[in-house]
Write a structure and sequence with these properties.
eight-stranded mixed sheet; alpha/beta; 8 helices; 33% helix; two-stranded antiparallel sheet; 14 strands
Length: 295
């Protein structure tokens, strides 16, 4: 099933290969959603520093754009579009050759406390997972496909094989009839991942472990599948995740792959610098979507 895709996109694949070998000819235009956030912004800034790419950072508000511009990002490299607005995101992606999806619903304390557990109740003030992680990502995938994108790199999350993962309970509300609404962030993310796989657009799906706000480039990275943990920690610096998202655009072998991404503790092992060799750790394995549950 990959043959026709490879034939259809061969000219642009050759173009990227030439860019890497001989330098910039016509830079690859890459949209990065979530560019005003944390991991997405790391990826966006990394692309800005690489001459073979022409990145377009997509942010949700004028305030986010202003903050990026104030930090030194060229204003014409940032576009405002809400990923839950299908028409707006399609317009923002027009003319793009590739896309890094860095958006995610973000939980925050609601200020209320669960009387039965004494724990704070979390909500999603900027959009529930169904709207952001499913419908918003679906709109991005559809927009990239309509634009003729040759590659979509999706930053998702580990935990998708376990429907009982505590992250799914965040923002979930129990109704009087015993049903629930809201929450289930990993279930909605997994649904979007499968939609991307079935879309026909060449893809890479990255499931980071717990995200750390620490400098990247100082750890040995670890790849795996299906939430396994044989070596290393269940965490990884955001900057290292962003580096893998960027390298997935540069290294053709990352296409058609879905994997988990973690790291060793700083000082353990050898710092990862060869990202082609890193992929060899998978031994040809990819995440199994028959495991777990989708929304």
């Amino acid at each position: 099933c990959q043959g026709p895709q490879a034939d259809e996109h061969t000219p642009l694949m050759l173009r990227l290969s030439l860019l890497l070998l001989v330098g910039p000819l016509d830079a690859l235009r890459v949209a990065v959603t979530g560019a005003g956030g944390q991991t997405g912004q790391h990826a966006f800034r990394k692309l800005l520093a690489l001459p073979e790419f022409e990145p377009v950072g997509i942010v949700r508000s004028e305030e986010s754009k202003a903050a990026l511009v104030k930090s030194g990002v060229p204003a014409d490299a940032v576009t405002v579009a809400d990923v839950t607005d299908e028409a707006a995101i399609a317009a923002a992606l027009a003319g793009c050759d590739a896309l890094i999806i860095g958006t995610s619903a973000k939980p925050a304390p609601s200020g209320e406390t669960d009387e039965s557990t004494g724990r704070p109740i979390f909500g999603f003030p900027n959009g529930q997972p169904e709207a952001v992680d499913w419908l918003g990502q679906k709109s991005q995938i559809d927009g990239a496909k309509a634009a003729g994108a040759i590659h979509v790199v999706l930053c998702s999350s580990m935990g998708g094989t376990d429907p009982g993962n505590m992250l799914n309970a965040l923002g979930r509300e129990s109704l009087p009839d015993g049903s629930t609404k809201g929450g289930d962030i990993l279930l909605w993310k997994r649904k979007a991942e499968k939609y991307l796989i079935d879309s026909g657009v060449p893809f890479t799906i990255v499931h980071p472990g717990g995200l750390l706000n620490e400098p990247g480039g100082k750890r040995q990275l670890v790849l795996g599948v299906d939430d396994e943990r044989t070596v290393g920690e269940r965490s990884i610096p955001r900057e290292d995740v962003a580096e893998v998202l960027v390298q997935a655009l540069r290294i053709p072998a990352y296409r058609g792959r879905s994997f988990d991404l973690r790291s060793m503790n700083e000082g353990e092992g050898a710092v990862t610098t060869d990202f082609a060799a890193l992929l060899d750790e998978l031994g040809g394995r990819d995440c199994d979507y028959s495991l777990g549950k989708m929304a």
